[in-house]
Amino acid sequence: MTICGYHPKMGVGILEFSEGLIFALREKSKRLKRNIAEHMRTEADEVFILKNFLESQIAAMVPESEARSAAEAFLGIVYIAQHMMQVPRMVADSESKLAGDIRNRAEQLTDMLIAFEESFELADGASAIQRTGEAFHTVFTDPDRVGYQIGSDRMVGLLGPPSARRNGVGSDKGKPRQSEA
């Protein structure tokens, strides 16, 4: 895959990030004496402002520079946080519902990563550009091909339930080779 394949530790990292986001929202909302859903809307607005600012600043940076690469990586983190806090899609009436929605989005990101990897690897023999295009089409523009619909609880992927693959069970795909372990 174009980002090194999938390893279950990647999914763990995404889920850990979502847990950190939940804890940070809880702590800050308590400190500011706000309802967590109200506070999340404020944070989501600030993340939107940050994203737009970073995009405009990055566009003016020297291409291929270390500073631009670091800023782009940071922007990637901002994109992930923004996706996890999509207010219009989350009608969280309780802290536990909000936390569950954020965790579900983390699991969905992991499921997309797994499905992208599987699709990329199944197109073996094609060029990297063709394999990438096929994987993108499979995951994002033709979700019926893998039984996945963005926003659903789970996808039924090409090689079994993603919860098993997230943990490296049920398929050699996504597992590290002996030399990688």
What does this structure look like?
There is one protein chain. The protein is mainly alpha-helical. It has one domain. The chain has 6 helices and no strands. The protein has helices spanning 8-31, 36-59, 66-84, 95-122, 128-141, 162-166. Helix 2 (36-59) runs antiparallel to helix 3 (66-84).
How much beta, percentage-wise?
Answer: under 5%
Number of strands: 0
Count of DSSP H/I helices: 6
Share of residues in helices? 55-70%
How far apart the termini lie comes to 17 Å
Query: Which spans of ≥5 residues are poorly predicted at pLDDT below 50?
Result: 150-161, 169-181
Rounded mean pLDDT is 79
> What overall form do the CA principal axes indicate?
globular
N-to-C SSE string, H for helix and E for strand: HHHHHH
Quick take:
The chain has six helices and no strands. By secondary structure, it is mainly α.
